[in-house]
Design a protein that fits this description.
By secondary structure, the chain is an alpha+beta fold. Helices cover 49% and strands 28% of the residues.
Length: 104
């Protein structure tokens, strides 16, 4: 094979690699950056839901762990990476009313 035959194949390979990067790798890196920013923004007082479906208020953030109050007098430690999302105002108010009633 000479260069004239190899050039189109190399060109298509580079085009496919660039397309792969744009469609798969770059968006994944962006999502990971957003996730890291979210986890680093967690602070005491935030109401959150874990990936396991447990909702609670953050009492403290210590490195990779978060202490959550899930009911009056019931605190648990979870990995920060286990926090799925921050609850919106309506969900947070509902959580506070459940905590005031003692989980009923």
């Amino acid at each position: 094979m000479n260069w004239e035959q190899l050039f189109p194949m190399v060109t298509w390979l580079l085009i496919w690699l660039a397309l792969l990067w744009v469609l798969i790798v770059f968006p994944q890196q962006r999502r990971q950056r957003e996730r890291d920013q979210f986890l680093n923004s967690l602070k005491p007082g935030d109401e959150v839901a874990t990936t396991g479906g447990i909702c609670g208020r953050i009492l403290s953030v210590d490195g990779d762990t978060v202490t959550l109050r899930i009911a009056d007098g019931v605190d648990i430690k979870v990995l920060k990476s286990g926090i799925a999302r921050r609850l919106d105002k309506d969900e947070a108010e509902k959580l506070r009313s459940v905590l005031r009633k003692g989980g009923r």
